[in-house]
């Protein structure tokens, strides 16, 4: 029997999301953008060395880059 754990894309994404939310106080609960959107876009930009515009265009259902910027700015002001 092979007891080797299998590392999947989904497991890596979930770990990264949890870790990022633990260390960065991001919160967004608007009708255009939720905390999960912020985290996913930021991870996509960091991992792909991409722009917010590019990541938002590629992620299905993601808010536009200006909405992400606005939510990040609001989160920074509340911290």
Question: Could you tell me the radius of gyration in angstroms?
Answer: 14 Å
Taking pLDDT < 50 over at least 5 consecutive residues as the criterion, the unreliable ranges are none
Mean pLDDT: 84
- Content-based structural category: mainly alpha
Strand content: under 5%
Can you write the helix and strand succession as a string? Answer: HHHH
Give a quick account of the main beta sheet: strands, pairing sense, barrel closure: none
Number of E-type strands: 0
Distance between the termini: 49 Å
* Large-scale geometry: elongated
Helix content: 55-70%
- DSSP helix count? 4
Notes on the structure:
The protein has 79 residues and is mostly helical. It is built from 4 helices and no strands. It has helices spanning 9-23, 35-48, 52-58, 65-78. Helix 1 packs across helix 2 and helix 2 (35-48) crosses helix 3.
Helix and strand arrangement:
Elements: H1 9-23, H2 35-48, H3 52-58, H4 65-78
Task: Please provide a brief summary of the model.
This protein is mainly alpha-helical and 79 residues long. Helix content is 63%, strand content 0%.
Based on the model shown, name its key terms.
about 80 residues; 4 helices; single chain; mainly alpha; about 0% strand; about 65% helix
